[in-house]
Every structure is written in structure tokens, then in C-alpha cells.
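Module 6 notes. Inverse folding takes a fixed backbone as the condition and produces residue identities as the prediction. Think of it as a translation problem where the source language is geometry and the target language is the twenty amino acids. Below is one complete input and output pair. Work through it position by position during the lab.
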């Protein structure tokens, strides 16, 4: 179980580092593309709709887990501050 956890976290950090290295990546614009109704938060339904619009099928459990991981204040949605915190590399000077 721990091996899987560390492997997933390493993959997440690698993605964060790649996004940070892209000069055209903008966390605010990325967040706004997820916030379909422009209310300043991304809900489970909005995230699921975006993923399905890209041709991927995901279950409620998986979407809930993603939102739950990012949702620091546990209000059931992700605001921009929570989203940005998840996008910023946790160890900017090294890779896994």
C-alpha cells in the first residue's frame, strides 16, 4: 500500500514540475476552464463533466477522491486557492 502511495505522489510531483516549467501554463486559466458556472469553485459535477467531455469515463468514487484531496476546507468543492496549492510543486528543486 505505501509503495503505491509513494508512486502516485511521485507521479503527481512530476506532473506539477512539468506544469511549472511550461511558460504558457496559467493556473488561473486552468481553474477557470474547470469552473463551468463561474462561481469561483469547482464541484464534483463540474470536474466529472470536464473529464467526460474529453472522452474519459470515470466513476463517482474517483472524482470524489480527486476533489477530496484538493478540498482543504472540506466544503465539497475546490476554490482557486486550493487548486493553486495542488498545482505548485512541493519540492521545486528535485524530481522523484
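Target side of the pair, the amino acids:
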Amino acid at each position: 500500500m505505501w509503495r503505491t502511495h509513494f508512486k502516485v505522489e511521485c507521479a503527481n510531483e512530476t506532473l506539477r514540475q512539468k506544469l511549472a516549467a511550461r511558460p504558457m501554463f496559467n493556473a488561473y486559466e486552468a481553474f477557470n476552464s474547470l469552473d463551468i458556472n463561474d462561481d469561483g469553485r469547482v464541484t464534483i459535477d463540474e470536474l466529472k463533466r470536464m473529464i467526460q467531455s474529453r472522452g474519459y469515463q470515470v466513476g463517482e468514487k474517483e472524482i470524489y477522491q480527486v476533489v477530496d484531496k484538493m478540498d482543504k476546507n472540506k466544503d465539497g468543492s475546490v476554490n482557486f486557492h486550493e487548486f493553486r496549492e495542488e498545482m505548485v510543486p512541493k519540492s521545486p528543486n528535485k524530481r522523484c
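Reference fact for the lab report: The helical segments are 2-21, 27-34, 44-53, 60-70, 80-87.
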